[in-house]
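Pasting as-is:
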Amino acid sequence: MKRILLLLSVLLCLSLCSCGVFVDTNTPKSAELSKEYDFYENSVASIRGACNVSPEEADEIFIILVNNCGVDKEISVSSTVNAPYSVKYGFKTLSMVLDNKVVSAVSDGDKQLYPAVSDSTESVKTETAAESDTETSVPHRTNSDIVGVSDKDISNIDIYYYGNVKNDVTGNWRYSMTADNIDIENYALSYYKTYFKSDTEIHGVVNFTRKTTSSIRVNGGILFLDIYDYVDGEEKDAKLMFSGTLLKSYMIYTDNGDIQQIQ
């Protein structure tokens, strides 16, 4: 009889653990964080559940959110397939992107909270915008295949720049991701001015709502934009990137943003 009761107790414990009743929050930083933040335990439990991270990794995410992003209440994290995590606290909601279970970006609408944008960077952007306003405008082309102007500001959408692409042997490939339902050709010139550090780079922009991946490269003052069907996981492997079916191709003139459709 005692053996039966012992077995039942063990099975009950295993069942409770599998249901997530017991959450191990014993980490090197947990005691200190618990004392400092009364919402720590519930918050890291939500982070672990939504982000599938270890207790230590959850602590690091929590620390960034409270120290760098102004979070001061209990956190509730939810995830959507192929989209940034939604971090809710109080009446606010932030977007969070993880790269290998480490926070790479947090934003509040179109304002980037982490990594912080320096004042000098903002100053350079302001000066550049002022200079562009004073430049002599170039007349728009009137070719029959001119289909618009790439004049939308990339900062007005939620886009997350990740940088290097795994397995890229050239060292020139970069990628970004967005879930906004946009026509990328209208933002391509602004994207180029914002994210390209060299004209040797080739950027992939994954749009999870459109299920497309766009290739952006530049040559001779012209952006070449090719839009492909998205292939699952291609942003994580240069061998897969741009391997989907080609849907459309454009040339975008950097002198005034004219968009010329070539396919």
